[in-house]
Amino acid sequence: MSRKILLFCLMLATAGFAFAQAKGGKGGGNQAQAIKEVKPGLYVVTGAGGNFSSGGDVFEIIAPLIEMKTTELLAFTKMTGDVVKAMRACPQPIIAAIDGVCAGAGAIVAMASDLRVGTPNAKVAFLFNRVGLAGCDMGACAILPRIIGQGRAADLLFTGRALGGEEAHRWGFFNRLAAPDAVMAEARALAAELAAGPTFANGMTKRMLEMEWAMSVEAAVEAEAVAQALCMKTEDFARAYRAFAAKQKPVFEGD
What we know:
Number of strands: 9
Number of domains: 2
Low-confidence stretches: 11-38
CATH topology of the largest domain: 2-enoyl-CoA Hydratase, Chain A, domain 1
CATH superfamily of the largest domain: 2-enoyl-CoA Hydratase, Chain A, domain 1
Distance between the termini: 11 Å
Structural class: alpha/beta
Strand order of the largest sheet: 2-1-3-4-6-9
CATH architecture of the largest domain: Alpha-Beta Complex
Order of helices and strands: EEHEHHEEHEEHHEHEHHHH
Shape: globular
Largest sheet: 6 strands, mixed
Mean pLDDT: 86
């Protein structure tokens, strides 16, 4: 069964971190409708013009914040946080293909993805403190330490310095490193591999990875017992058994 991979392109010239164009559905005008119609097995998010995203535009987004009331600012910060909540709640894996500048809210989108394919030219910067803000933005203080560790996350969030591509790979922020002209091909190949897999089970893995940070080991083991029992009731599990018995490669259909 062929499953579609939905590609989102972050546009630097607009809101930076907003999903501005969807490719793979019926165009970029209505993202929710595109997602509904495509029913993808996986998402890939990338940038335009040789960069991933520079974050919020200084004049279009940051400047108006100076004039807002506290209640308006809270509404804004909650809205931006909803992007991360949606990415983490989405059952399909999200792969970020990252080249060039990946800063501010753009770095958050990369962080909130499930897997990241980067290039040596990439520069990842959580630069909130450089504009007088705290590093605790859009879940950074919760998610970033899970990926690279508490000490390294503190380094990036307190200083706002750029994390180079090779260092990001060594630290585990990038799962894979590719040449700039091959990063999308690498991301697409990884996406195709996952999309051809048992997507219900992959969604369960994503959910458990998210939930178990707030659980004791005992609770996590119990939760995984329930999750795995549910996966054992899927047709994909039966298909895998039949294929193994017949010495064939299983063809998963996501049910």
